[in-house]
Amino acid sequence: MDDPIQPERFPRSLQDLAVKVRDDIRLDQEDALLCQRTPHVLHLGRLADTVRRNRHGNIAYFNVNRHINPTNICVYTYNCKFCSFAALPGEDHAWQMTHEEVYRHAAEQGGNEVTEFHIVGGLHPDLSLDWYLEMMRGLKERFPAAHLKAFTAIEIGWFAKHEGLSIEEVLKRLADAGLGSLPGGGAEIFDPEVRAVICDGKLDADEWLEVHRIAHRLGIRSNCTMLYGHIEKPEHRVDHLMKLRQLQDDTGGFNAFIPLAYHPENNYLGLEYHTTGTEDLRQIATARLVLDNIDHIKAYWIMLTPKLAQIALGFGADDIDGTVVEETIYHMAGAQSEQHLSRSELERIVRQAGFVPVERDTLYQPIERAAVPA
Ligand code: V47
After folding, report:
1. Distance of alpha carbon 33 from alpha carbon 286, whole angstroms
2. Ligand 1 in contact with 225 (CB < 6 A)?
């Protein structure tokens, strides 16, 4: 190891944890709870950084992507109380794109440069699976090189229910139409009591995990997330991480974990506070230490701000997400960060944090480009 851990240099309460990390021993539930509770977040970060450097050296990944949200109309608008994005049909802030509008969005600012379209939306009461299949085929025709990372497990569950199809059949049809992988959204917090308050009626933990399990079995990789900073307790976060780790032990199909900080504006949950920087960094570090079988921990700059994402790279994260271009979920919930960073801005952020920027595709293969203007 380049940077050996010297457990005796850690606060007493973290020394056993430091020994485990030094000796590469899997952390258990108790250890994970300690990560969630310790006041020594800088020390936790030091441990996570060692693990991260052993895995990825001083590389930090980013990609050239574009978000597209074809509709925010959602039958769960009142169920998902934390969501500021969803709308009911006819509400002022509701939208629904046509296929042509989707293709126009895809082409704007980036177009063929983009290696990934990240496509998610509301659970629309009327749009059929065929409508989405045609959209996917249309995107693939126009942007054959782009990877379509599309539809959370919640949307997959909705398509299945709406069409009377199995999850497997929905995923197969989407894959035939060009689906490359699933994004990690919709996981929120798996604990049923927390779920009953923040997103009653949505897929439960087992159902969310089952969608990803089936996807992995079909060879469709995916990401996973955890929404923190609302009513959940440290125990709930630990339970959530353990369930993700278990599925990854079973399938190996997760590419990346993304902790998502709750943003409180413009939704029905009625909470006031934003997470603090310390708590955000704790979640990154805890994830790197506990999720020993997930390769990548993403510090989503839109959510953290570019400044905190830089710091997160030293707390266990190895990826800052991408150019994004147009972001609605967090900006409708009060995020003040930009919506677009260019490739050169992302590279600068990474470099100035002391890491080497590597552009990747969705599956973390490095991308070589001829010198392209920023
Ligand atoms: O599932 C919604 C969260 C998620 C709020 O896979 C909120 O690469 C905070 O999953 N405050 C969608 N969070 C975003 C997501 C994602 C983002 C970036 C990359 C990837 C990936 C996935 O956003 C939702 C929910 O957990 N969310 N509303 C809110 N008010």
Report:
1. 9
2. yes
Q: Is residue 366 part of a domain?
A: no
Give the whole-angstrom CA distance, residue 226 versus residue 195.
12
**Contact of 190 with 150, CB cutoff 8 Å:** no
- Residue 74 counted as domain residue: yes
The encoded tokens of residue 288 equal 């790197």
79 falls within a domain: yes
Q: Ligand 1: does its nearest atom lie under 6 Å from the Cβ of 188?
A: yes
Residue 15, phi then psi, degrees to nearest 5: -65, -40
| N- to C-terminal Cα separation, the chain | 36
Q: What beta strand segments (E) does the chain contain?
A: 59-63, 65-68, 116-119, 147-150, 179-182, 221-228, 254-261, 296-297, 319-322, 356-359
How far, in Å, is the centroid of ligand 1 from the Cα of 11?
A: 34
Output the CA 330–ligand 1 centroid distance in Å. 8
As a whole number of angstroms, the distance between CA 163 and CA 39 comes to 49
In the structure encoding, which two tokens stand for residue 50, read together?
A: 């060692």
Q: Separation of 152 CA from ligand 1 center, angstroms?
A: 10
Q: What is the pLDDT of residues 122-143, one digit of tens each?
A: 999 999 999 999 999 999 999 9
| Residues of the chain under the 70 pLDDT cut | 1-3, 109-111, 370-374
Q: Give residue 18's pLDDT.
A: 98
Domain count, the chain: 1
Question: Is the separation of the CB atoms in 27 and 238 below 8 Å?
Answer: no
User: Which residue has the least CA distance to atom 28 on ligand 1?
Assistant: 83
CATH assignment of the domain containing 80: 3.20.20.70
Q: Pick from 43, 16, 18, 30: which is nearest to 285 by CA? A: 43
* DSSP 3-state of 70: coil
Q: Which domain holds residue 242?
A: 60-359
pLDDT at position 373 is 52
Rounded to 5 degrees, φ, ψ at 321 are 70, -155
Domain for residue 211, yes or no? yes
Give the position of tokens 């990826």: 319
pLDDT for position 329? 83
pLDDT value, residue 190 = 98
